[in-house]
Amino acid sequence: MSSGNAHKVLGIKTQPHAIISSPKACRGCVLALNILISLNVPFGFAFFPNELVALPRCLMGRSVTQLVSYTIMPRGGHFAAFEEPQLLADDIWNFVSLVQKMK
């Protein structure tokens, strides 16, 4: 699939360049969702420095009531499972361990 057809596959009615060319718009969507959605389950977040858009920890408190772990990763980005699989796996195991200790 070419990037020119991505909007058709995703069902987005806009120009394909508009999807990725406006991080502020994406960040606005995330912040809007932050206000509307409340997570009441144990939650872990891994912040990868090369991610396109990420929610800072200070804003998570508005919707995440049980933030168990927030890890700032040294490298990696949007495709963290492919880019840094060991970092991600270690963080997931750490999160599971913390949740198990809560029981």
UniProtKB/TrEMBL annotation:
The domain of life is Eukaryota
What are the GO MF terms of this UniProt record? epoxide hydrolase activity
Which organism encodes this protein? Trichonephila inaurata madagascariensis
Q: Which SUPFAM superfamilies match?
A: alpha/beta-Hydrolases
Any idea what this protein is called?
A: Epoxide hydrolase
Magnesium as UniProt keyword = no
Gene3D superfamilies assigned: alpha/beta hydrolase
Q: What keywords would UniProt list here? A: Hydrolase
